[in-house]
């Protein structure tokens, strides 16, 4: 087995595995190091609801057989209102999706090493030349890519990722059967992906029901964990406690039974990305935080960042033959232009959304019902003009709260 590659990728999540597909497809020697054992893969990393849209499926050639259920609409719920947008989507079997990406990458020539927990970068004479994994195993390469999600061991070591605990969002989800998807008190969730803004069930975040066929659905919640976002939270109630509370009090779950044994758990960071590359190094996927305010499309973003990294590696290894920080910086440019344009505004929308009280969510749904489909898509893309249309003078208090949040963090002023 060779121990020298063009590109070393840490992590076989959607980002790492997609990047390997792209690079191997272009003829590069690429190795992916994944901490989980192959016979269990994906175990703990099987952490996503897998809701996505046609653009992701077609852009990355994802086959229908990893789709658990095709949906026809997205529903947004607040405590007393809802908004329905017709939009074809797909709830992926996340395990099958991850396995497909690995197999397809292998087919194209990528090498995978499972049971390989990446520890730190190997730096010689100031140059990054490889990666150390497990106890003392080493692998060498021209370019190293961290795609380990929030773990980010390489990016952290190289001072690239500055993932802040204050911006940490956690999530939990179960698969249920016996869910009443067309309850008279709520919107019809048959063939829908539903996101609910309601601090009773997800203080400082949102909860969801994604239909997965018949009377089954993925049901989960996620929220930002810091004090400011937890103003509406009940002391000592854990994320599991909130999900239980939702299940106990929402009539749609009266006859619901959990199907899968263990819950899906995961986390992400809601914060600006900062720098994403340095000499012969790039950070991709959830190692770099990026959030969509309305739909939360993590998968599409991380696949696009994988493609941007593959394009950059191709350019640096073949065209410019230069892997300096300046050349690798092309990746940062592509990320800001193509992966998550106008990230600052999208981030602001996301944070404002989670800070607003329940009554404001009801009004938001009423307003969304009056807007055109294009307007909503523009809002999700961070259009200032369209965002302003949704704001009221009374929102000044949340804007103020948001400003203080971004200036001072949450714990320093918990009055
Ligand atoms: C509960 C939940 C629900 C979600 N639902 C949706 C959704 O419906 N739609 C959507 O688009 N997005 C969703 N997301 C977000 C989406 O899942 C992520 O954005 C996406 O999985 C990120 O992919 P990634 O490859 O960057 O990282 P990850 O998926 O985190 O993959 C990282 C990989 O690296 C491996 N790894 C970690 N540490 C090491 C190490 N030291 N060495 C080697 N390997 C390592 C892990 O085992 C894993 O395989 C959800 C996230 C959560 C937590």
UniProtKB/TrEMBL annotation:
Keyword Lipid biosynthesis: yes
Gene Ontology BP terms: phospholipid biosynthetic process
GO MF annotation, one: oxidoreductase activity
Keywords: FAD, Flavoprotein, Lipid biosynthesis, Lipid metabolism, Oxidoreductase, Phospholipid biosynthesis, Phospholipid metabolism
InterPro entries, per the entry: Dggglyphlred_Halo (IPR054884), FAD-bd (IPR002938), FAD/NAD-bd_sf (IPR036188), Geranylgeranyl_reductase (IPR050407), GGR_cat (IPR054715)
Residue ranges of every copy of the Digeranylgeranylglycerophospholipid reductase catalytic domain listed in the record: 191-249
FAD-binding domain span: 5-164
EC id: 1.3.7.11
Superkingdom field: Archaea
Listed Pfam families: FAD_binding_3, GGR_cat
Coiled-coil annotated residue ranges, if any: none
Protein known as: Digeranylgeranylglycerophospholipid reductase
Source species of the chain: Halohasta litorea
């Amino acid at each position: 087995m060779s121990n020298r590659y063009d590109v070393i990728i840490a992590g076989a999540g959607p980002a790492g595995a997609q990047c390997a597909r792209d690079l191997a497809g272009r003829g590069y020697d690429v190795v992916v190091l994944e901490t989980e054992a192959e016979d269990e893969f994906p175990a703990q990393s099987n952490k996503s609801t897998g809701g996505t849209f046609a653009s992701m499926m077609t852009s990355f050639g994802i086959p229908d057989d990893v789709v658990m259920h095709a949906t026809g609409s997205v529903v947004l719920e607040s405590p007393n209102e809802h908004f329905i947008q017709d939009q074809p989507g797909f709830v992926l079997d996340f395990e099958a999706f991850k396995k497909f990406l690995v197999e397809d990458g292998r087919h194209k020539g990528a090498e995978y090493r499972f049971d390989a927990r990446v520890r730190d970068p190997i730096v010689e004479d100031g140059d990054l030349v490889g990666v150390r994994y497990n106890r003392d195993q080493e692998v060498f390469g021209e370019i190293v890519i961290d795609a380990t999600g929030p773990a980010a061991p390489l990016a952290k070591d190289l001072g690239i990722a500055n993932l802040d605990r204050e911006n940490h969002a956690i999530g939990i989800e179960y698969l249920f059967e016996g869910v009443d998807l067309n309850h008279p008190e709520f919107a019809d969730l048959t063939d829908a992906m539903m996101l609910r803004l309601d601090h009773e069930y997800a203080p400082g975040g949102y909860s969801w029901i994604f239909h997965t066929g018949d009377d089954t659905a993925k049901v989960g919640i996620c929220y930002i964990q810091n004090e400011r976002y937890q103003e509406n939270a009940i002391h000592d109630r854990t994320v599991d406690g909130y999900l239980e509370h939702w299940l106990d009090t929402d009539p749609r779950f009266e006859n619901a039974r959990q199907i899968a044994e263990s819950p899906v758990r995961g986390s992400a960071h809601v914060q600006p990305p900062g720098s994403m590359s340095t000499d012969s190094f790039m950070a991709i996927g959830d190692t770099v935080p990026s959030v969509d305010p309305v739909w939360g499309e993590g998968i599409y973003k991380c696949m696009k960042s994988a493609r941007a990294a593959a394009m950059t590696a191709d350019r640096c290894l073949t065209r410019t033959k230069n892997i300096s920080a300046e050349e690798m910086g092309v990746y940062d440019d592509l990320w800001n232009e193509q992966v998550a344009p106008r990230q600052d505004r999208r981030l602001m929308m996301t944070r404002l959304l989670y800070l607003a009280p329940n009554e404001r969510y009801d009004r938001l749904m009423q307003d969304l019902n009056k807007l055109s489909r294009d307007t909503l898509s523009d809002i999700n893309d961070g259009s200032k003009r369209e965002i302003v249309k949704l704001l009221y003078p009374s929102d000044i208090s949340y804007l103020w709260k948001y400003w203080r949040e971004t200036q001072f963090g949450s714990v320093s002023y918990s009055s």
